[in-house]
Design a protein that fits this description.
The structure holds two protein chains of two kinds. Chain A is mostly helical. Helix content of chain A is about 70%, strand content about 0%. Chain A has helices at about 10-35, 40-65, 75-90, 95-110. Chain A starts with 8 loop residues before the first helix and ends in a 7-residue tail after the last helix. Chain B has 14 helices and no strands. Chain B starts with a helix and ends with a helix. The chains are: A mainly alpha, B mainly alpha.
């Protein structure tokens, strides 16, 4: 564990290759978004693209993950997502119930089957 | 404060809209954010980054996937340009997200600079909750309300980055996997929860199907294909449904 570190390089990298490549899209979004009316078809299209992209990010994190999660088998992740979604609809669209069931299936089965992610 | 500010009732209520937004940030999304950033904080520690770096990365990048790509890339010694491109690709999604929330945020006629500042707070959590709650907020209060909600989320994420960094060594691998699984399961259900009509569900289904279909292509552009391609198909489908009067 290091509090600040004596090397400035990671901080320069944070701004140049972490902050700027993300932030530029937000700035462009403001420039483009200023000219769009919230009742227009263009707005509905952009919202559909934003929602689909978010759903895609979510699917990528779950089905093609990196890190610890990648060490758990794909069928386990698919089962956890499917049962979580089923529980969500079964419990009158309760996000909390869906999350608990999905996480329970993932961590419970990994534990019961003795699967250990490398960490 | 100028004369025109004091004569307008909205000028006096900025603080109270901000507090309302801050209160709206207390809830399940903040809990999920907290757990997610415990995971991200511990990943930062595992890659040998200083604590201050982990905290600044949470505040400055403010996008979970980009944060993980950044720390993973730098931690494994990838070249900066490769990391920058990977981060940039993962954050393209912020463009349509900002475009679709700006019409709400500019309702009170803020300056361009204020909007740029507000756009920094756009991330998965505040976007989903913002689109859900902002239509019910009076137009002049929307920007302050959003500012309150989003700074509340950012504060929670920052505090729990520190917590995750501190307990990095003692998190069991299965629990760590569970923390990283929270973001996908929670936001998938949030997107479904925010969808009321069949037309609302289409982009969610199209985005997931798009990734599953195009990821095996291996070109690294699956988010673009699924987002723009899937989103456009969903938009056309929803429009066709509306025209048939089935909503």
């Amino acid at each position: 564990m290091t509090l600040i570190g004596s090397d400035l390089t990671p901080y320069i990298a944070l701004v140049l290759v972490g902050f700027l490549p993300s932030e530029i899209w937000r700035w462009l979004g403001v420039i483009i978004g200023q000219g769009i009316d919230e009742a227009s078809d263009l707005f509905l299209w952009v919202k559909a693209v934003a929602t689909a992209t978010l759903a895609a990010v979510v699917a990528k994190l779950a089905f093609f993950p990196s890190g610890t999660l990648a060490d758990l088998p794909i069928w386990l992740r698919v089962a956890a997502i499917s049962l979580g979604v089923a529980a969500f609809f079964g419990a009158k669209r309760s996000v909390l119930v869906g999350v608990i069931v999905g996480e329970g299936v993932l961590m419970g089965s990994a534990w019961a089957l003795g699967l250990t992610p490398r960490g | 404060m100028t004369a025109s500010d004091t004569s307008s009732p909205s000028g006096n209520h900025v603080g109270s809209w901000y507090l309302k937004g801050l209160r709206a940030a207390v809830g399940l999304p903040a809990l999920i954010l907290a757990a997610t950033f415990v995971g991200i904080g511990s990943v930062c520690e595992a890659y040998g980054m200083p604590l201050l770096w982990a905290v600044l990365a949470t505040i400055l990048v403010w996008a979970g996937p980009a944060h993980l790509i950044l720390v993973g890339g730098l931690g494994t010694g990838a070249s900066w340009i490769v990391v920058a491109i990977a981060v940039g690709l993962s954050s393209v999604r912020l463009l349509p997200m900002v475009v679709s929330i700006v019409p709400y945020l500019r309702a009170g006629r803020p300056s361009f600079f204020t909007l740029l500042l507000a756009s920094h707070f756009v991330a998965i959590s505040s976007w989903v909750e913002g689109l859900r709650l902002l239509p019910g907020v009076a137009p002049e209060g929307r920007l302050s309300f959003y500012g309150g909600m989003a700074t509340g989320y950012l504060t929670v994420a920052t505090l729990f980055t520190v917590a995750g960094y501190a307990i990095s060594g003692v998190i069991s691998p299965i629990f760590g996997a569970g923390l990283l699984f929270l973001t996908p399961i929670f936001f998938l259900l949030s997107l479904l929860g925010a969808s009321r009509t069949l037309g609302d569900h289409l982009p969610v289904v199209a985005g997931i199907a798009g990734v599953v279909i195009t990821a095996p292509l291996g070109d690294g552009l699956e988010l673009l294909w699924a987002g723009v391609g899937g989103g456009t198909l969903a938009y056309l489908g929803a429009r066709a449904l509306r025209r048939r009067g089935r909503v």
